[in-house]
Design brief:
By secondary structure, the chain is an alpha/beta fold. The chain is built from ten helices and 13 strands. It has two domains: 90 residues, no CATH class; 212 residues, Rossmann fold. The protein is 38% helix and 26% strand. The strands form four sheets. It has a six-stranded mixed beta sheet with strand order 7-6-3-8-9-12, with helices on both faces. Helix 1 runs antiparallel to helix 3 and helix 3 packs antiparallel against helix 10.
């Protein structure tokens, strides 16, 4: 809250108050003629009560009243700046590969402010990165599609990101049979976005494999997305060469690793992104994957429109009442305690 004067030009009237006091009281006092009394014994017996002379109280009260009334004319007020924010969010579907190849433990959660250097599987690291992404998109509706041999919606578009993160935590291997249906994942994502009324509709598809399941070809699904105005960002994860896959002994549950060649179809992912106006990214580490989602977040910015206005609270009433109060007090004193002989 800020105090301000709405009509400051009225404050120039304060300069007239000293002139009025001088003309009304001080100048007239110099021109007084002495009075002759036949007997002054009665006046000598009169005692002043208080330290202020009565002849000064009246001009002081009237001056205070004028000052307060002038301030009331100048419109004193309290102001408070308010801001109205309107957002145009983006609808985003996160398509996440949960096929068996995502079990490869060639990633580490050494992104952002984490210092954990223990190898983790690709799905675990992808989920952690996606959580960071979701928490930054506070104004956007986000949904989750997971896919292996089939694709299904784990979470529809929602602004309740806590529910989305809880459902993301439940995602794990074995929810559907193994294989990789990239075309079905895109088709399912498009189905979730086709009725969206937002200006920007986005799919972020993450996979580490080759389309080998489903009834829809990935490039055909990309053409469908393009016709619906849906942009697809594709992310291929995994390092070139062989990847370590954990193998557990049936009896001792001891973990060993078996190295299997990566089979990422980068050409198909690049074409999917190109046909829809998106971008293809390659993430070979957890840190790089984190940077990829950061970049996508910066490219897909939420439209925010702001409109500012000021709310005023007028304060002239207390000044008027105080000024009239001083006038009333002066009138009462002039007719009672400080009554003068004509």
């Amino acid at each position: 809250m800020n105090f301000e004067i709405g009509s400051p030009n009225y404050l120039y009237l304060l300069l007239l108050i000293p002139l009025l006091v001088w003309f009304r009281y001080l100048r007239r006092r110099k021109n007084y003629a002495p009075l002759v009394y036949s007997d002054t014994n009665l006046i000598k017996k009169v005692r002043f009560r208080g330290r202020l002379w009565p002849q000064y109280i009246s001009p002081i009260l009237k001056s205070l009243a004028l000052v307060l009334l002038v301030f009331a004319l100048a419109r004193p007020r309290l102001s408070r700046a308010l801001m109205e924010v309107k957002t145009q969010g983006i609808d985003i579907i996160l398509a996440l590969d949960i096929s068996g190849s995502m079990k490869a433990e060639d990633f580490r959660t050494d992104f952002s402010d984490r210092s954990d250097s223990v190898p983790q599987n690709r799905l675990f690291v992808a989920k952690e990165v996606i959580k960071e992404f979701v928490q930054e998109r506070t104004e956007d509706r986000i949904g989750l599609v997971v896919f292996a041999a089939q694709a299904f919606t784990q979470c529809p578009l929602t602004l309740d990101h806590n529910i989305l993160i809880n459902l993301l935590d439940q995602v794990d291997f074995g929810m559907v049979e193994d294989n990789t249906a990239i075309g079905m994942a895109i088709a399912n994502s498009c189905n979730r976005l086709k009725d969206s009324q937002t200006k920007s509709k986005v799919v972020v598809l993450l996979t580490d494999g080759v389309n080998n399941a489903g009834k829809i070809d990935p490039l055909t699904a990309a053409d469908i997305a393009a016709s619906l105005g849906i942009k697809i960002y594709t992310i291929g994860i995994g390092k070139p060469g062989n990847a370590p896959f954990p193998v557990y002994d049936r009896f001792t549950r001891r973990k060993t690793y078996r190295y299997i060649p990566n089979s990422l179809d980068e050409e198909a992912l690049r074409k999917i992104a190109d046909r829809t106006g998106g971008i293809y990214y390659r993430a070979e580490t957890g840190e790089k994957l984190f940077e990829v989602y950061k970049e996508i977040s910066s490219l897909e910015t939420t439209e925010i429109r702001t409109r500012g206005y000021i709310q005023y609270r007028e304060l002239f009433t207390p000044f008027v009442l105080a000024g009239l109060g001083f006038v009333l007090i002066e009138s009462i004193l002039a007719r009672t305690r400080f009554r003068k002989i004509p």
